[in-house]
Amino acid sequence: MLHTNVHSWYTHSTSFGSARPSVENLPRLALPFYPRSCGCFDYERGFRREESGRQKPMVHLFWGVKGRGRFETMYGTFDFREGDFFYLLPFDSWVSESCSSSWIYRWLTFDGESARTFMESYRIPHHPIAAGRCPERLFDEFEQGLHVRTVFEWRKMVALVCDILAHAVECREPEPQAEKIVEIAMERCRLYHSDPAFNVNALAEQLQLSRVTLFRIFRVALGVTPSEYITELRCGHALELIRGTSLSMREIAARSGFADRTYFFRVIRKRFNASPRELRMGRAGGGALLPE
What we know:
Elements lengths: L3 E2 L10 E4 L14 E10 L4 E4 L6 E9 L1 E6 L2 E6 L2 E5 L5 E5 L4 E9 L3 H6 L8 E2 L5 H13 L2 H22 L5 H15 L7 H8 L3 H12 L3 H19 L4 H7 L5 H12 L3 H5 L12
Antiparallel strand pairs: 1-2, 2-3, 3-10, 4-9, 5-8, 5-10, 6-7, 6-9, 8-11
Helix pairs in contact: 2-3, 7-8
């Protein structure tokens, strides 16, 4: 009989998970894919979890509910926040780490021979997308179906997965003026990123948009936040000055938009896995910058 499992990695009473009985065996039904498991994770800051894909023959769907965390996958390392949607394909490995005092997300999995093809048919990027508020009711209904397991409920759970994906993709569709707003925002960032006083608040004010709206359209269009985009431009500018001039690091930090020299050193090391002086010596650096 199916029961709710309390796994060893659950650190809060608000974490829970359910799965179909004998997950290795598929139900004897003709379905495009097979519902497997569902739940909610609530992690404390600094909690880190590594998952090998070798024993993960299922598609994972994740939807952020609260707080912020980070996923490291074969597709890259991404922040994952409230309102973000993210997925992994069968046999993908990942590392997740909580970056806030309480990082909560809902998840579900499905498997079967056609699970990968079904998920790939949506052509959703392999990074978190801004999908809006998590439709927790749909996740709850999916979990209830795992307990009932009638033929009707199996088919209903398949429909619920489609419903969840419809919500995620619908929120990803660009607003009529969104593409133009992003173009203007990117141009403003390129013009003003070297000014230490320029930040997301200044950009939102110039565009006469709320921070929430600006955040959402950036995540949909570029897969990053406005702050991350500005920081990446500053890192690119700093790298050019480090390698192409003899300016002091203090002056390079100021010219590339970093008001604080210590913060400049920390960001550069994180971005290029090398200190500014090591970059000047040609010992490291590189990596794709964000689109311009």
